[in-house]
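Database export, one record per block. Field names are fixed; values are copied verbatim from the stored entry.
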Amino acid sequence: MRGRLQEACELAHQSLSLSQTKMKCRYDRATQSREFEAGDQVLVLLPLQGSALSARYSGPHVIERKICETNYIVQTPERRRSSRLCHVNMLKKYHPRKPSLSLDVQEPAVVSSVGVVALRSEGENQEEGLEFRSDHIKGERLCNSEILETLPSIMTHLDNNKQHDLTELIHAFPTIFRDVPSRTTVLEHDVDVGEAVPNRQHPYRVNAHKRELMRKETRLVLLEEPCMICRGSYRGNRTMAGKEDWRTIAAGFHQRWNSPNCCGSINDKHVVIQAPHNSGSQFQNYKGTYSIVLLAVIDADYLFRVVDVAGYGRTSDGGTLANSCFGEGLRDGTLDLPEDVQLSGGETRGPLPHIFVGDEAFPLGVNLMRPFPGTNIPREKRTFNYRLSRARMTVECAFGMLSTDWRMYRRVIATTPSTAEWCVKATCVLHNFLRKSTKEARAQPAGPSMPGPASPYMPGEGSGRLQDVLRMGGNHAGRPAIRIRDTFTSYFNAEGAVSWQDQVV
């Protein structure tokens, strides 16, 4: 037994020695031998003063003497110890800056003159009352041409192949190494600031041409996003929409999301704010933070069509809807919704009203559909919930885009509730402007169209009296609302079925 243990120990030592040799060879492949003599100037990796756990190369320092191949005595007169023993891995050779590489200034240098000469175009309008000095200032001139003439003498430390490759690369792009600094498009990269807080810029005067562009964009925002301010102690901001607008929205949902008679997807979002003074638990939500509530109705293209801000954080989703302008208009029948229409292929089911879709937190109503509650429900009801979720997905995506584009939604807004309310309204208007002014808003993938004739919701077709809307109470829905939801359930499982819903459900 003892002999076997000794034999095993010898095998372990041999294996360890072989592993050490392999690791040393692998490490030595990427290392370069460094050797210094007394009197050489080096950079030494020393700890920072006041932070012993951080280190940085400093110098130059002079080597006093050489102890062995790996250890040297270095003079550090500005430190507490005037000399110290340093390993070779803590030393770097110091290369003094050569005078030939410095800038050759032909005229007295002017602050921030480099790069200004090539950035201003000839046709740019000048600032009123200001004088551009770029015509009178010449940028600093580099000595790249002189260095390129002596290029072989500079690359003596490289082998022949590397010298040849580097010479061809430099001569392939002659405009990059000119004596006068300018712009180039050879190298481009995106700058991602991440979660960094932007720097606050002091006010400054803008060029007249840029001011005109800013005025044009501002006028476009005001024309594209008309808003009506609702006065009152508990009122928000509502985008004006007429009967033709509702028909256009319904046509978009029918075409893209296979949801007929749908005028929008409704949901709310808690915007976290700093706790107001003497507010108690009025703004405290169920998550324990303080917030105001953004209630929004989104169309098929992720645009905000109805915006109502000013709900307290402690209010439920149903209470926020009931206290908002949109909820009052939905109860009173003043939203100017289109008249009831028959669904394509389901003429025997009779006309059905135009609806809004929401989640389980909202009450069921004649013009507001919510999914069937529970998980153990029949297949027909699960199909209705799936078709309802396809249309309701637009509001969730719109809130995600809003939070991605405007980082204020990812942190606490340290303002008063009234100021935060206007900030939220402004971001909703700017979101619509950006969606409409970019090509991405028109290139979203559309869902397959439903079989059957063309959509009956195109603007300009039909007119008539608004249907009477019953008052909505709590979550105890009335018989008309239950009947309408059952009719949509039957339609989605028969004439209005799509080919893929059986595989999804």
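Remark 1: The chain has three domains: 41-93, 137-182, 223-504.
Remark 2: Residues 100-140, 225-240, 444-474 have pLDDT under 50 and may be disordered.
End of record.
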